[in-house]
Design a protein that fits this description.
Helix content is 0%, strand content 56%. With 238 residues, it is mostly beta strands. The strands form four sheets. It has a seven-stranded mixed β-sheet with strand order 1-20-17-22-15-13-14, with no helix packed on it. A seven-stranded antiparallel β-sheet has the order 2-3-4-11-6-9-12, with no helix packed on it. Strands 5-10-7-8 form a four-stranded antiparallel β-sheet, with no helix packed on it. A hairpin with a 2-residue loop joins strand 18 and strand 19.
Length: 238
């Protein structure tokens, strides 16, 4: 088993006033040669957008982008004609593929919106651009893994899909609990990110917004004594 602990305090950070953002991997003005990616996982940004502000229209290509709203609501519009609001508990996927332009704004004028922005390299370049979003029942992740995203060739009802052999899941553990995670593909690696609470993973104690990358393993246990909400991102390593 290989592990790499990512303390929250060591993430890249920038505060532009309208955006307070933390980067798990090199991004924009933050560069760390030891934190450029984890397998196919290229970006995990922890963003807080101030009320009434947001990202103006900008381009993307050849990237599978997943957005998970943690609080507030995110307003989205893109060059494919989609105009949607993504609320807390909803997840959005956008395959940038051959190229797409989009803008993202805080839907509210009186409160911040927090969301996780995840970029995963696609299986190949030049794929068709697409958009989708789903609202997930948060109660269905209580003390178990709730599957959010699957590969396009292993679609499951009630989950989104992307054009890569990757799976995203989330679990909300209460009290003293142990929960195992078994990899869908033993050649993959897993990036665990603690959204809230504290947990023990691979012999490491993680607090809120800490993460750990784990590879060369088939099954791993997550434990907590006081509760935690944990995002699991399983991706190819080559």
């Amino acid at each position: 088993m290989k592990t790499d602990f990512h303390p929250s305090s060591e993430r890249g950070h920038a505060n532009y006033g309208w955006l307070d953002t933390h980067h798990s991997f090199s991004f924009a003005g933050y560069f760390n040669p030891l934190r450029e990616q984890f397998g196919a996982l290229r970006v995990l940004n922890d963003d807080m957008i101030a009320a009434g502000t947001g990202f103006d229209e900008h381009p993307h290509n050849n990237m599978e982008i997943v957005s998970i709203v943690l609080e507030g609501a995110l307003e989205h519009r893109d060059s494919m004609g989609h105009r949607h609001v993504i609320n807390r508990g909803e997840v959005q996927v956008m395959s940038a593929g051959t190229g797409i332009r989009h803008a993202e704004y805080n839907h509210f004028k009186d409160q911040g919106t927090a969301f996780l922005q995840i970029w995963i390299f696609p299986r190949q370049k030049g794929l068709k651009s697409r958009y989708d979003q789903i609202s997930f029942d948060r109660e269905k992740r209580l003390n178990k893994w709730q599957l959010l995203v699957t590969p396009d060739n292993q679609k499951q009802e009630g989950a989104l899909w992307i054009q890569q052999d990757a799976w995203l899941s989330v679990a909300r553990l209460k009290g003293v609990k142990q929960l195992d995670y078994r990899l869908f593909n033993n050649k993959n690696g897993v990036f665990f990110f603690v959204i809230e609470g504290a947990a023990g993973i691979a012999g490491t104690n993680l607090e809120k917004r800490d993460a750990i990358a784990v590879s060369d393993i088939e099954n791993i246990s997550v434990t907590t004594t006081s509760g935690a909400e944990i995002l699991c991102i399983e991706v190819p390593m080559d």
